Amino acid sequence: MRALPTHALLAGLLLLVAVALRIADPDPVARLRLAVFDTYLQLAPRQLDAALPVRIVDIDDASLARVGQWPWPRGKLAEIVERLTAAGARTVTLDLIFAEPDRLSPAEFAKLFADQPELRPLVEKAGELPSSDARFAAALGAAASVLGVAGESSSSAPGPAVGARFAVAGDDPLQFVPRYTGAVQSLPMLNAAAKGIGAVNWLPERDQVVRRVPLLVAIGGQLYPSLPLEALRIGMGESTVFVRSSGGSSVGAFGQRTGIEHVRVGKIVLPTEADGELWLRFSRPDPRRYISAHTILDGTYEPANIKGRDILIGTSAVGLLDLRATPLDTAVPGVEVHAQALEQMLSGEHLVRPPFALGLELVYLVGVGAALAWLIGRLGATGAAVVGGAAILLVFAGSWLAFKNTGYLLDPVYPSLAILLVYLAVSLAGYVATERERWRVRAAFGHYVAAPLVEELARNHDKLKLGGETREVTVLFADVRGFTNIAEGLSAEALIAFLNRMFTPLSEIILEERGTIDKFMGDAVMAFWNAPLADPVHAANACRAALRMQEELDKLNSLWAAEAAARGEAVHKVELGIGLNTGACCVGNVGSPQRFDYSILGDVVNVASRLEGETKTYGVPIVVGESTARAAPDMALLELGSVAVRGKQRAERIFALVGDEAWARTPAFRQLLEAHQLLLASMNEGDADRVRAAHAACAAHGSFARLYAAFARLAAADQPKSAT
Questions:
Q1: What pLDDT score was predicted for residue 274?
Q2: Which of 153, 160, 197, 639 is surrounded by the fewest CB atoms within 10 Å?
Q3: Of 275, 175, 163, which is closest to residue 229 (Cα–Cα)?
């Protein structure tokens, strides 16, 4: 398949569209990429290290069954926090927001009966009891506690005071992180008692699957750490969260505001996306991570699961609707997402979409896509498919190894699909171009080349050198003898019918013997061999065609004689003189792009025409030149002598073709050849007696009476014969 400029243009256009589509990153493209990353994570999830100091106190269905329906009195939550603190918990983080006073607090409960006079003493007494919210605040104040805040875009309520301090190197992270206009927060007394405040917002992908969590959010223009990041800070005893973004030292953004590079707490560095999100390397759900809340209240928990650990309090109860989908599970408690994020921060087993990922994927897409488009023209579609398949397998293997060994997220799918599209489009364009070329070849050669040869040219049109080339060919000229006499007795319509009836089977013979019909010239036909397709035995094939044409003409003469006899008419016997010559010619399309003929030019053509004229002189139907005789030595050939052809400085030996290879091996031909050679030698010596004797021996072969009658005339004339 020839690589055409249009194919290169098509490949370039498709690659440009693929690059633009990837940069735009519409939802279908993003989903493809995320599906691959999910598959990688399913194949190689993070393994839970039971030694990591992260546990979840779970308000599960069993706890609701024992303690009562939700919400529990704040006193119960205060008791849980107090017990966890007493057991040595390093931090206590609540994935809960207490935006309203406890409706079961004594004072709040008393308000329900304030309008009933008979209960006034009881109401006044209840109002004097301690508030359960106050007790809960005291428990939070005594613990290394973290409360949540939720950013809201539909609210303008200000957020609580931030417990963490931020140190920023580079551009202000507020312009990159998720932003909210307002907040949903816990009661001020609870926020004031907690040691830290963290955002509980999660940002699922468009398919509602949680793959990343924001480490930082902006609420009302104020920067907040996420809940697990704040738990990490409190647990490490740090006061400051360090944020490095574009423009900071060692962050190569080249003047562009490319976003956040990483967040650091103490010595723990957390790589992030440009918007400050952390990719989560989930582990599979594991019951060892959970402690049922009721065991804390009834004292049946294992103390070793509490001491020195970071405890997150949340709920897995189905009715409380705090469930999330992850790449590993369709329903995971929201508190586990925070817990796994905290585990990942402590273990350092991160997933990272490195800054060079997009550039590397686009370089692969463009490089391999362009290489395949080029290889299709060199190796063909199959060879290019093998190379392309190997490249795609290699990039998938590299992407998987990068994920498994370094946590790098490199997308092999979109670039590979884009490359496949380029391959299919260029292959299709090549196929269409090839079919168009085949149609052109069939149209150009279908009228004068045998159908099998046309198909071979169509399949391998590189064998056809359009525009001309020098090639050795064998040329055939065939001319009807006495055509003028035949034509005089026929009408124009009858004459055309006669010629068509004669040339149809003769043309078929030429094509069957791998010849190319050049042209018909009234009562003559010209054909040649060894072009447009190579034919190593072109001279022999041309000789066989000439012999078969004579045999076919004999059959036609018999048929015409029978038809004429049936009509009571006389018939003229049709004779055909054929000249064959072999030599170098210029072969190619001659004419204009609108109208051309595939033909040959050269002296060998002229000589073949003159040899056809010699058939009348020697009384034989087929005369071949010396070069043809040398190229087909196994044919039954009889030398006729030498003739001086116009335009040639030396005389050329010519031969009568009297039979094919099979007849050349018969005793009868060997006897004739021996007698014939003796005749030629006698004529050269000028011995009249020997000539007569040799002539008589040759004439005994009755089939060649006309030939030897011609020899007798030439001997009698005793002069050189010159072709004009």
A1: 92
A2: 153
A3: 163
